[in-house]
Amino acid sequence: MKIVITGNHTVSYGAKLSRAEVIAAYPITPQTEVVEKLSSMVADGQLKAKFIKVESEHSAMAACIGASAVGARSFTATSSQGLALMHEMLHWAANARLPVVMANVNRAMGPPWNVWSDQTDSLAQRDTGWLQFYCENNQEVLDTIIQAYKVCERVKLPGMVMLEAFILSHTSEPVEIPPQELVDRYLPAYNPEYKLDIKTPHTFGGLTGPGLYYELRYKIQSAMDEALDVIEDQDREFKKLFGRGYGLIEEYRTKGADRLLIVSGSISSTAKEAIDILRERGEKIGLIRIRVFRPFPKKHIKNAVKNVKRIGVIDRNISFGSEGIFYQEVKSALCNEKDSPAVYGYIAGLGGRDVIIDDFIKIADDIKETKSKQDIRWIGLKG
Amino acid sequence: MIEVRFHGRGGQGSVIASGILAEAAFREGKSIQSFPYFGVERRGAPVTAFTRIDDKYIRIRHYIYKPDCIVVLEPSLVEATNIVDGLKKEGLILINSDWDPDAFSFKKNFKIATVNASDIATRLGLGSKTAPIVNTAILGAFAKFTNIVTLDSVLAAIKERVPMKREENIAAAKEAYEKVKF
Question: Closest by alpha carbon to A235, among A284, A29, A341, A227?
Fold first, then answer.
């Protein structure tokens, strides 16, 4: 059934359809209506889950970790400062190999206080061992939460699903809500191989010396590598059942292109309009949207940019003192390639600054000419 | 694509109005998108909300800068802000006002309609006398004036979206549909 809902409520439906069993959340700003809706779903019996209202986001993640360790499918949602407060626990969830799934509404970090769209919050958590998905529209948000549980429970790592503040979170659009039976067919109940059980007491995460710790880290890296295949397989299976699939990256009008824009998140949607305008003018330009950031789909990007001469990567985030974070990763994926294209970095839309069609057209024009590769360019910077 | 911008004050239901319009168009098989001006809303402060309606999937995800139609829920905003900013030539303006459409100075460039939605809402007990909730009345007038959606779709969307006083809200939309002047 197709209904008109906001991105926030889409997330709630995603968690409900995935049959989350424990939901822990801190309900104050920067939290969104995601958990408000979930708490009402639990209260009126639509969703059989334990809703735990905690005193901070750090505790929310701790509760999800505990629940996941005893074998319950757990869920939370947060944003910006709330995600930052979870940082220690994010490492814990990944290192304990617990497939917690959460939604993060990408909001700018303060100060100054700003609740608008910006990806720096989640990208600052890139090294914690969580899978990261960046969505373009609300339908994809719903589908990705369901897929994330499937993938994360396979590879035994947690996953974060990103939707940008307001542009998706507070925007209403039609979303297909699949029947529960179909989701159940795709996503069976969570039944981990190892879980905490008072009948057979043991512990997780006890002291482990240098003799074993190193190998445990290698296993996480291997699980991330494996996740690339699992995400693709599960996306294909999802497409068979639901008719929708997304891949690790999306290529848009890349055929015959000698220039590419690389984008992520909701601005990709507007950027496609710009690509259509440019294609009508006869320009050989296409777009790649990076949907999965962790694990980073290096191989897929390498393949997609063959025959391309110039690339502009647009980041709604920044690593201060360096550059846009997708820009860093794209360059790193291509640096050892023979005849790799020139890659230029652009910053846009931090803190909710509107990113319009013209911005993409300007960037597309800007990368026509060779320039110093060192500088990043700020789109629409005032004075 | 049709782009609509709503102007009101916090508490009048502008954001809900943009959602009901989207829901009404969705019921007619259209692609839609509705969203508030992203901010921190307060009662009484100027509020802006947007609706996009199209036959094909809507990909644009930025603000509406050149609307086809403007809906003003609060008459005092006509003086206080540049409500016609970016409005396309021959664009439509619907104002909650007891004035005639001809009384507005920007009449020559745009098509104007007025309806006394505050009066209708007050009589039907929607909101309070000093702060009537006019969103459902204005959408009834919108259906008649713009033909972008039918009254039936607006009424069905109100039933779906409005949690309280459904009958009164439906009556408000119907009455405004009859009384709108243009």
Answer: A227
Residue A87 counted as domain residue: yes
Whether residues A169 and A115 fall in one domain: yes
Interface of A with B in 87-146 (CB under 8 A): 115-116
Nearest residue, CB atoms, A116 vs list B38, B59, B60: B38
Which of B74, B48, B79, B47 minimizes the C-alpha distance to B134? B74
> Per-residue pLDDT for chain A (383 aa), expressed as one digit of tens each?
999 999 999 999 999 999 999 999 998 888 889 999 999 999 999 999 999 999 999 999 999 999 999 999 999 999 999 999 999 999 999 999 999 999 999 999 999 999 999 999 999 999 999 999 999 999 999 999 999 999 999 999 999 999 999 999 999 999 999 999 999 999 999 999 999 999 999 888 889 999 999 999 999 999 999 999 999 999 999 999 999 999 999 999 999 999 999 999 999 999 999 999 999 999 999 999 999 999 999 999 999 999 999 999 999 999 999 999 999 999 999 999 888 999 999 999 999 999 999 999 999 999 998 776 667 999 999 98
CA-based nearest residue in chain B for residue A137: B59
Chain B interface, best mutation among A4, A29, A116, A357, by max B CB count within 10 A: A4
CB contact under 8 Å between A173 and B60, yes or no, is no
A370–chain B nearest CA distance, Å:
30
Q: Which of A113, A172, A277 to mutate to test the interface with B (most CBs of B within 10 A)?
A: A172
Q: Is residue A383 part of a domain?
A: no
In a domain, residue A294? The reply is yes
Cα angle vertex A164, ends A66, A117, to 5°?
115
Asked if residue A314 lies in contact with residue A366, where contact means CB atoms within 8 angstroms, the answer is: no
A41 and chain B in contact, CB less than 8 A: no
pTM for this entry: 0.96
Domain coverage including residue A89: 2-242
Complete domains list, chain B, with CATH:
2-179 (3.40.920.10)
Backbone angles phi, psi at A309, to 5 degrees: -95, -40
* Distance (Å, whole) CA A332 – CA A334: 5
Q: Does A269 touch chain B (CB under 8 A)?
A: yes
> Where residue A157 sits, what CATH number does that domain have?
3.40.50.970
Residues A222 and A270 in one domain: no
Give the pair of three-digit tokens for residue B115: 């309806």
State the ipTM, two decimals: 0.94
**Cβ-Cβ contacts under 8 Å, B32 against chain A:** 4, 172-174
